[in-house]
Design a protein that fits this description.
single chain; 351 residues; alpha/beta; Four Helix Bundle (Hemerythrin (Met), subunit A); Rossmann fold; 7-stranded mixed sheet; 4-stranded mixed sheet; 16 strands; 39% helix; M1Pi_N; EC 5.3.1.23; methionine biosynthesis; amino-acid biosynthesis; S-methyl-5-thioribose-1-phosphate isomerase activity
Amino acid sequence: MVTNPSSRSMGTVAMRWHGDSLELLDQRLLPTEEHWITAEGAAGVVQCIADMVVRGAPAIGISAAYGVALAARHAGADDWQAEVSQAIQELAKSRPTAVNLFWALERMEQVFNSCDSLSDAAKRLAAEAVRIHEEDLAANLAMADHALGVISPVQPISVLTHCNTGALATGGYGTALGVIRRLHEERLLTRVYADETRPWLQGSRLTAWELSRDDIPVTLNADGAAAAIMASGKVKWVIVGADRITANGDVANKIGTYSLAVLARHHDIGFMVVAPSSTVDMSLASGIDIPIEQRDGTEIREIRGIQLAPAGVEVFNPVFDVTPAGLIDAIVTEKGVIRNPDIIGMRALFS
C-alpha cells in the first residue's frame, strides 16, 4: 500500500494522498476558510494547479506527479498509454515558470515509459509520486541545516521573507520558511517580517497564517514597507524561495523579490535563496531565458470581486521577476550552499 508522506511532514499539510485520489487544501480561501478539494483524476489536478488552489514550485511538482499517478489509476485498459501520455502533456501546460513541474513530470515519464502493463504503471507511478514527495520533505530538512550554518547567528535575529515558502508550498516543513522554522526551533529567531505579497497576498493569507498556527512570531507588513524595515536595522537577513534558478545563479521568484535584493544590498543585509535542486535549470544560461508567466489584469484591478481600479485599465501583472546572481549572498539547496553564486559555483554543485 502506498503511504501518505504528509503524515510525517512538519507544519501545515497542503496535500493528502489517498492512493486513488488527491486532496488539496484550497489556498485561495485561506485564512478565512479551510476547504479541501478532491481530485480523482489528472484533469482535476491540472485545474487546481492552473487556478492556484495549490501553489509553490515544489508543491506544484509533487501535485503533478500525483496527477500522473491518478491518470494511470483511472485509465481505461484499452488505451491506457495514450491516456497517461495525454495527462503528462496537460499537466506540463498548467504553469510555465516553475521548473519543478517539468522535473517531476520527467521523472514520472521515465517510469511510465518502462511500464509494460496498466497494473504495473498504476503501481509504479504511485510509488514514484510518493518518492518525489518524501524526497522533497527530506530536502527541506537538509536545506534548513545548511542555511543555519550560513547564517550562524550568535544571538536571536529577525528576518524578512516574501510570498509563502512553507509547508503550504512544499511537501512539508518549507524551503525559506523551513529555514525560519529551524531558527525558531533553535531559539535563534526574534521575529519574522512577512511581506503581504501583492497581488495574491500569499504573505498575509498564507505565511502569516502558517507561522501563527505554529506559534512563530510574525509581523505582517505592506510590500512597500520593506525598505523602511531594512533601514531601521530590524532585520539581518532576507530569506526567500525560488521557482527557477539558472546556470549562472539568476533566480526567478515571486514578483517583488528583485526589489528586496536591491534593498538588501543597499542596506548591507544578507540575501539568501533557499530552494531544492529540482528548482535548478542548468539548461538555461541566465534569467533572461526564463519564461515569465503573465496573469489576468483582474487580479490587480480587483480583490475577491471588489473593484480597486477603473474597469478596463491596462495592467502589467507578471507573477515572477528575476533577481541577478550578483545580488544574492547564498543559494541554499539540499546538495549544499553556493555563496556569491555564479556559473562556476553552479557548475561545481550541479554539473
